[in-house]
Amino acid sequence: MSVSRSLLGLLDLAPRHGYDLKRSYDELFGSGRQLAYGQVYSTLSRLLKNGLVSVDGVQAGEGPDRKRYAITDAGVTDLESWLRTPEKPADYLQNTLYTKVVLALMSHRSADQILDAQRREHLVSMRELTRRKESGDLADQIICDHALLHLEADLRWLELTASRLTALADRLPTQGADK
């Protein structure tokens, strides 16, 4: 996710302080992965340097002065361009699980055990997401549906791969073959 574009989008709604941006980001997008204050302020500094936001006011407080940031016209243009640009689907041609399966087969270890353990882990995640979806608001339901559909696709891949392990093993070099 683009933190800088997310902050621009929040600033497009109204000027805000860094603390308010972090709180809004965490509420809307940060489930399980909240922003650190340092990341908010370093991102705002970069956006300011690039002319995408400006300081809209400074408020004196007990601690450091609180700057209120506003999106600039260049920031609006950048945000609109980002919103219109489709995301490139991930092609998943290289992933860690595939690598583990291949290396297990090459070294005469159990790829079935790897796939079974991964299946169990996926099912645990699916149960947690389903509970969250059932108790959540519409935003939670939508994001959980996205994650659940990806996990379902992963489970289909796990089953398909398990059915092809013997054929895959026959095509791979094995431990000791090159020694």
UniProtKB/TrEMBL annotation:
This is Transcriptional regulator, PadR-like family. Gene3D superfamilies: Winged helix-like DNA-binding domain superfamily/Winged helix DNA-binding domain (1.10.10.10). InterPro entries: Tscrpt_reg_PadR_N (IPR005149), WH-like_DNA-bd_sf (IPR036388), WH_DNA-bd_sf (IPR036390). Pfam families: PadR. It comes from the Bacteria. The lineage of its organism: Bacteria, Bacillati, Actinomycetota, Actinomycetes, Nakamurellales. Residues 7-80 form the Transcription regulator PadR N-terminal domain.
